[in-house]
């Protein structure tokens, strides 16, 4: 068997129930490599970090688009079933199979002669399935000793319990709700508590998604219709959101005659052929026990994140750590245990994605952010890029990392599916950085402009000196810095690429050059050019990221009131409402960006008082005109009658663009009244380049000299090293070797 995926209909070899019935699981011939999972470079997403949904049906609709092409059915030799059976056998004593068979023979609900769970009716009313199946599930849990686990003192440590939830609304996460809190009602839920799942050791009487172990959806036929796919995908998505240390989720479909095991992970969905659970009772019992196991990684949890005496913790074994003593990256073998905040700082609200989760963490009195995410195979690791950007002002600094902790390949197990679509793996990553908590709406007026200068300078140095382009500038990815020597930084470099990769030149037979291009980043802040999606406008470059910075600034200035609170929807400017609305199409976003750049902004800045507003209005319109040239270049590259080729990226042109962008910001900074209180402005307004040197001016006020005036001093690498040490100084009374 190979990893070639041959497309078939899920109902191509159907029984009377509309599904393909498989034989009992058997061990297939093992391929040389585990099977991968489908990932495509660009697809719709249900992520709503700045938006909301007003109905579950809206979530179902976007889930169809997000998961399109990723519903993979296992191949004829049932590799997923074999893998799950093997996982169960390897984690249990050899006597467990005998114990299960003996229990089935003695269980009053199974007729060994008829080979049927006789309590499960042959019915045309799916609601009649729930009660008998719940009873069977709970009996199986008791067989495996998985209903209750007690500690040495006899107290409940962990629980598992099946509950009929088909008429019980389980609330969705509140932040993405629109006019009302969204709720859904899975048919049967096996709840789980304790361990790495919840701080509470017992299961609450009110069903909640944080306690979900596995889900079962009752149907009369096992066909995965669009309606069924949307329904179960919504359940899985909510589990991922409310259980941030979840790596995969089971939402199984069961009928009076057969079941499908359905697994969701960051590559999409992988499911079994139909299984006759009446004729295969041993396998059925194994699946129920495996999906609720006290070995919680079998349930789909990342067990390095766990609860201990009411405190959420994380075990972290970095591949390398940054040494404060040697100012170098060094190999590491020490496992670190961090205290985590109870709730993560950020959870990406989608299934098929990087699945980013950011944890606020404390280690020996110092604050960090630990980011877990799934890297697309073939993409350079964020850790390698951040190592090269160590000490660069305007770039969030990394302390440690653990690459390739797991993969979809490995987790799904060996085998194939019925898809012939090319597939790419994802790898589970972890990096730890300094904590940069506040986004730009918290800045004071001068501080905001200095923040824009810092991130533009950091972006400039990263691109022109290191050849690294961020490609995902967004509201969440630019943060105020509490550390000396800088006002703001760019974080989240997992979408970054080397410019040499983006400017790869292909030559066809005619000798014509073609630049490789893709569209990436947070959609609300993408540039007009990227949203346009034309093949004539080249790859992602510095102007796209600078334009994204402009949209972040516009959101802060025109989307927030004087208290730093975002306006109600009816008070937001139309263009900002369009950016933040997850239902706005790509075309709608492109048109919105084009309109704001092509014409004078008719709104006044609302973030600060009247003494500041006019200065910010002028800056916004000056920047708008700066980007108008780019929009006109995009227009010309697509014109039928006035066509002009889009300019090829050059370092010289990029350098000039940075100069012009920064000059507009610095001019505004010179004109602004002083901030009302002392804040951590950057003391330096330009980063070192071979032509611009950086002085030792930590104590200098940002207004103490003319903006943009270079200062004589040390070379770039020396200054970067000093800045790194300054930013990474231990807290008072803390040893420098804490991380070593």
The number of helical elements comes to 17
* DSSP strand tally: 31
Low-confidence stretches: 1-42, 505-517, 682-740
- Arithmetic mean pLDDT: 85
Secondary structure category: alpha+beta
Strand content: 15-25%
Helix content: 25-40%
Shape: elongated
Cα separation of the termini: 47 Å
- Report the C-alpha radius of gyration, rounded: 28 Å
Quick one: biggest sheet? 10 strands, antiparallel
Oligomeric assembly: single chain
Structural summary, described in words:
This protein is α+β, with helices and mostly antiparallel strands and 740 residues long. Helices cover 29% and strands 17% of the residues. The strands form eight sheets. Strands 16, 17, 18, 19, 20, 21, 22, 23, 24 and 25 form a ten-stranded antiparallel β-sheet that branches. Strands 2, 5, 6, 9, 10, 11, 12, 13 and 14 form a nine-stranded mixed β-sheet that branches. Helix 9 runs antiparallel to helix 12 and helix 15 packs antiparallel against helix 16. The protein is elongated, with a radius of gyration of 28 Å. It starts with 20 loop residues before the first strand and ends in a 13-residue tail after the last helix. The N terminus and C terminus are likely disordered. Pfam families: Pkinase_fungal. InterPro entries: Kinase-like_dom_sf (IPR011009), Pkinase_fungal (IPR040976). This is Fungal-type protein kinase domain-containing protein.
């Amino acid at each position: 068997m190979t990893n070639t995926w041959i497309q078939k209909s899920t109902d191509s070899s159907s029984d009377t129930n509309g599904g393909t019935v498989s034989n009992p699981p058997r061990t297939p011939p093992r391929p040389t490599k585990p099977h991968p999972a489908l990932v495509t470079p660009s697809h719709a997403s249900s992520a709503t970090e700045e938006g909301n949904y007003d109905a579950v049906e809206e979530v179902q609709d976007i889930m169809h688009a997000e998961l399109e092409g990723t519903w993979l059915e296992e191949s004829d030799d049932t590799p997923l079933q074999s893998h799950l059976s093997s996982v169960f056998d390897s984690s249990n004593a050899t006597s467990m199979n005998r114990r299960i068979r003996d229990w089935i023979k003695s269980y009053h609900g199974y007729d060994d002669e008829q080979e049927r769970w006789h309590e499960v009716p042959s019915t045309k009313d799916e609601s009649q399935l729930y009660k008998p199946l719940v009873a069977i599930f709970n009996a199986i849990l008791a067989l495996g000793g998985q209903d209750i686990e007690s500690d040495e003192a006899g107290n409940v440590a962990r629980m598992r319990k099946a509950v009929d939830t088909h008429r019980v609304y389980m609330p969705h996460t509140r932040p993405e709700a629109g006019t009302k809190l969204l709720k859904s009602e899975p048919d049967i839920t096996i709840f789980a508590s304790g361990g790495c799942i919840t701080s509470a050791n017992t299961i609450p009487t009110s069903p909640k998604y944080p306690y979900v172990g596995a889900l079962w959806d009752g149907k009369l036929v096992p066909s995965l219709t669009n309606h069924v796919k949307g329904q179960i995908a919504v359940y899985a998505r909510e589990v991922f959101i409310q259980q941030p240390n979840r790596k995969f989720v089971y939402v199984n479909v069961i009928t009076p005659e057969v079941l499908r095991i359905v697994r969701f992970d960051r590559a999409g969905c992988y499911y079994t052929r139909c299984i006759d659970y009446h004729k295969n009772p041993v396998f059925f019992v194994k699946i129920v026990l495996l999906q609720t196991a006290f070995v919680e990684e079998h349930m789909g949890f990342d067990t390095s994140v766990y609860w201990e005496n009411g405190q959420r913790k994380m075990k972290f074994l970095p591949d390398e750590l940054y040494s404060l003593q040697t100012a170098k990256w060094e190999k590491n073998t020490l496992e670190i245990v961090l205290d985590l905040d109870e709730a993560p700082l950020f959870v990406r609200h989608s299934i098929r994605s990087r699945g980013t989760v950011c944890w606020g963490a404390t280690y020996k009195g110092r604050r960090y952010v630990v980011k877990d995410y799934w890297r697309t195979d073939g993409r350079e690791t964020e850790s390698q890029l951040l190592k090269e950007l160590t000490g660069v002002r305007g770039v969030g600094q990394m302390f440690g990392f653990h690459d390739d902790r797991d993969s979809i390949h490995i987790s799904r197990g060996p085998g194939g599916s019925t898809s012939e679509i090319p597939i790419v793996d994802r790898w589970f990553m972890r990096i730890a950085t300094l904590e940069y908590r506040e986004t730009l709406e918290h800045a004071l007026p001068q501080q905001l402009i200095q923040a824009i200068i810092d991130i533009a300078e950091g972006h400039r140095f990263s691109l022109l000196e290191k050849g690294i382009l961020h490609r995902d500038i967004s509201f969440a990815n630019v943060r105020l810095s509490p550390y000396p020597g800088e006002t703001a930084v760019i974080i989240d470099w997992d979408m970054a690429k080397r410019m040499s990769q983006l400017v790869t030149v292909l030559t066809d037979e005619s000798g014509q050059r073609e630049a490789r291009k893709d569209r990436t980043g947070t959609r609300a802040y993408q540039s007009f050019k990227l949203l346009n999606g034309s093949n004539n406008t080249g790859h992602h470059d510095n102007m796209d990221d600078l334009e994204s910075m402009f949209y972040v600034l516009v959101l802060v200035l025109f989307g927030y009131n004087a208290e730093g609170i975002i306006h109600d929807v009816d008070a937001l400017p139309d263009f900002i409402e369009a950016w933040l609305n997850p239902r706005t199409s790509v075309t709608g976003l492109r048109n919105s960006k084009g309109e704001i750049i092509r014409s004078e902004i008719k709104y006044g800045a609302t973030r600060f008082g009247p003494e500041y507003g006019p200065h910010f209005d002028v800056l916004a319109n000056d920047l708008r005109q700066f980007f108008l040239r780019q929009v006109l270049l995009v227009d010309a590259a697509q014109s039928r009658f006035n066509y002009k080729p889009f300019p090829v990226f050059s370092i010289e042109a990029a350098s000039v663009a940075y100069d012009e962008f920064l000059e507009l910001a610095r001019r505004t900074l010179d004109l602004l009244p002083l901030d009302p209180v002392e804040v951590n402005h950057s003391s330096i307004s330009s980063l070192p380049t071979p032509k611009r040197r950086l002085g030792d001016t930590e104590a200098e006020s940002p207004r103490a000299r003319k903006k943009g005036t270079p200062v004589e001093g040390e070379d770039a690498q020396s200054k970067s090293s000093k800045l790194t040490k300054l930013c990474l100084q231990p807290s008072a009374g803390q040893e420098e070797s804490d991380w070593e």
